[in-house]
Design goal:
Helices cover 70% and strands 0% of the residues. By secondary structure, the protein is mostly helical. The longest helix is centred in the C-terminal third of the chain and has 14 residues.
Length: 473
């Protein structure tokens, strides 16, 4: 229970601070706090916590917050949770932080309710529970706290802990946006862009993105870049797109850093500058962003703006591959399969090809088929080879067709079928004209009637259809 809410020293202290006489204000607040006035204790704690016109001192902040919290000042209870969660002035302890957040939330503090909701959202010190997160976010949002309103909007939009409802997502985003909250403006922009809960309106979406971007929201800045790149609600302008991407990139937004790297690599909206490209990739890569690590792997493998360095290429590919990046998994496997500047390791190559193939890498599917065909790094298995070649070919990978054609031409693992071999070569050309020589070579072994029949089959086949297994003449 609070001893006193206010006294003469507290009032005098607050008047002095309002007049910017901070020395007198803090002196009066300390007198009031020493007398046990809870509000003064909290104000003094905040001054020490923030370093407001006094040397920042977390131990003093902790002392005064504890005294105010003992008198059940809700916001002071929440701040103790914050200090234990961040390890400021105390040893970091998520369980203790959680206890203070729960106490603060029960006392009605909207910050504590938000922080408790966030613990449940993240599963920190408690089992992850979207329903509980939603409950506490709503308590806080109904008190007008913009951060909770945006959290609630996101939960309604994504159907987290509650039935998906775009209209309610729009309502809560609007409340936050009306308070000038950048995240609320960003979310409103997204809802209008996608037409969720409201008629699609890309111009209105851009208005909200600009409002959020003006406050430094990097996601909004990136989205404006996308709009200029694609000419959505604005005239297409690659230079303006690059300007907006760079604003987001300079704030550490990895997607934007990757985009800037790619733009400097090819000169899209900016002048070609391989050093700047590498620098942007490195920024994102250092933060652990797999696509940027994959780009660096390519630079060092092929010597694009840098000296060829297989060891660095392998390092970056491996970092991205271990995060599940299928492109790096396939590139690393290729290096290992053929020993491109590193020690050859067929068994490991097959393992990485399999991971990439399972994620839809057509190159990996084809090359894994090649390894099964030749018993390289895996036991020889023509059935598995055909399976992986077919996966790649079915989705339009030309080399997959050539690989299948070679099997049917030689009769390896299948009955020899020169007509089907030619058909697959023709399909490969349909995907990539560079395979014309293989097709022309296969054509020499067929009659004119066989060629006509095969050409009809190839002409009628489309990506995604079952592969032809027979050709009727």
């Amino acid at each position: 229970q609070r001893l006193e809410v206010t006294d003469a020293n507290y009032e005098a202290g607050m008047r002095a601070i309002a007049k910017k006489d901070y020395a007198l204000g803090l002196e009066k607040l300390r007198l009031s706090a020493d007398a046990g006035v809870a509000n003064a204790q909290e104000e003094l704690a905040l001054a020490y916590y923030r370093g407001d016109h006094v040397k920042q001192d977390y131990s003093q902040a902790l002392h005064w917050f504890e005294l105010a919290a003992a008198q059940e000042v809700p916001s002071a209870v929440n701040m103790l949770g914050v200090m234990y969660a961040t390890g400021k002035g105390v040893l970091k302890n998520n369980e203790t932080a959680l206890a203070f957040y729960k106490n603060g939330a029960s006392l009605g503090d909207y910050n504590a309710q938000y922080n408790l909701g966030d613990r449940y959202r993240l599963g920190e010190a408690v089992p992850k529970d979207d329903k509980q997160a939603f409950y506490y976010f709503r308590l806080s949002a109904e008190q007008g706290y913009a951060e909770s309103q945006t959290a609630l909007a996101r939960f309604y939009r994504e159907g987290l802990g509650v039935k998906q409802d775009y209209f309610l997502a729009l309502q809560w985003s609007s409340r936050a946006s009306a308070q000038g909250n950048a995240e609320g403006q960003l979310q409103l922009g997204y809802l209008y862009e996608m037409g969720y809960g409201v008629p699609k309106d890309e111009k209105k979406a851009l208005v909200f993105y600009r409002l959020a971007a003006a406050q430094g929201d990097y996601s909004a800045q990136y989205n404006i870049g996308v709009a200029y790149e694609n000419g959505v609600a604005v005239n297409k302008d690659d230079e303006l797109a690059a300007e907006w991407y760079e604003k987001a990139a300079k704030q550490g937004y990895m997607l934007a850093q990757l985009e800037m790297g790619r733009r400097y690599l090819v000169g899209r909206g900016v002048r070609i500058d391989k050093d700047k490209a590498r620098n942007w990739f490195e920024m994102a890569a250092m933060a652990g962003y797999a696509p940027a690590q994959d780009e660096l792997g390519d630079l060092f493998q092929y010597g694009d703006g840098v000296t060829v360095n297989a060891v660095k290429a392998e390092m970056y590919y491996r970092k991205a591959a271990e995060q599940g990046n299928r492109f790096s998994q396939a590139s690393l496997a290729l290096m290992l399969q053929f020993g491109k500047g590193i020690q050859k390791n067929a068994i490991e190559a097959a393992s990485w090809y399999k991971k990439a193939a399972d994620q839809g890498s057509l190159l990996a599917q084809n090359n894994l088929g090649d390894m099964y065909e030749n018993g390289e790094g895996v036991a020889q298995d023509y059935g598995r080879a055909i399976e992986f070649y077919s996966q790649a070919a079915k989705l339009g990978y030309g080399m997959g067709f050539i690989s299948l054609a070679a099997l049917y031409e030689t009769g390896r693992g299948v009955s020899s079928n020169l007509v089907l071999a030619y058909t697959y070569c023709q399909l490969a050309v349909k995907m990539n004209k560079n395979f014309a020589k293989s097709r022309d070579f296969a054509a020499k072994k067929l009659t004119s009637d066989e060629l006509k029949a095969a050409d009809v089959v190839a002409a009628n086949w489309k990506i995604g259809m079952p592969l032809p297994v027979t050709v009727n003449q």
